[in-house]
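Throughout this chapter, every protein is written as a compact record of paired, labelled lines. The reader may check this reading against the record printed directly beneath this paragraph:
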Amino acid sequence: MTLAELRRFSETAKTQKEIKLKEKYWSEMFKNQLGKPGLHELMKELRSILDEYDGDRMLVGEDDDISYIGNGNDELHLVFNFPLMRTERITPNHIRRNQKDRLSQLKALPFEGWGCNTLGNHDSSRIHTRYGDTQHDANLARLNAALVLTLKGTPFLYNGEEIGMTDLLISDPAKLRDTMATWYYDRLVNELKIDPAEAALRAGEMSRDKNRTPMQWSNKPNGGFSPDSVETWLPVNHNYKYGINVRDQQKNPDSLLNYYKHILRVRKNSPALIMGDYIPLHTTSKGYFSFVRKVDSQAVLVVLNYSQAQLELDFSPAKVLKDQKIWPLFSSAVRSITELNPKNIHIGPFEVFIGEILPH
């Protein structure tokens, strides 16, 4: 089976048997290209070169194998927590399972490794598109931004997510630049004899170009990325005209861009959110995800409501919250800034809530 045939088979696989075969074939196709001997030696060489230079510097691996962290000083500083984003929907149960598995793996190292979280990059659909439900996309985008920025570990944000950029399906093969997509279109038409219209759709869908379109800076032509007279390398998503651009959102205090700025300020000023341990709470809830981040000097409660329900939550049984009060640091809802009792915390639909746990 050629690579083109395998990709085509993957697109048309529907039964459980076909899906299992697809996974088997992909594994066989690339078994000699992944995780081969010598990679650790290469990582050590890269690290030794990096360590020759003064100042802060960091190596992150586009891989989720924590063994590439080495002994903590001789290979990579970080590897991505890609399992967090390998799901069709971000749900509280998925996040809990991921954090339990990932943090336990890092803790089991001879030294305690550090996490690295993201939900999007240049190889995957944009968060707004990938994890939306077509009804609450804006709410979910804000929840998922808060998730990455409050979990234990270093957060990575893909440019454009902060203004809610979405995928752009490029239907004209002549405008595709991703070499995998242009190759696939050619193979579909000329090798597998697929109708060119369907081949164009398939190539556009699989292309990474859809989530690599130019940054949308303003509502001017080409989204302000380049002058009107210049043809951009990839087409600009037309939604730059409708508020999905930096300039318009800078002026709007309720914009996604200002939401990101606000939560980033809170994170920067919260030692617990930067370096704190992770303490999961209410671990059987299906609609919301809650946890505490804690360092010696501060503890912070985070509640992410992934549901439309109005919640009334009791966190008082948790040791870290017993006989304490909570001071709101951030909320995506409208709420008064006043001390809260952990026994009775109201959380609105799709609300992001961050509160400092006050000492005795």
Notes: DSSP finds eleven helices and eleven strands in the chain. The CA atoms of residues 72 and 232 lie 42 Å apart.
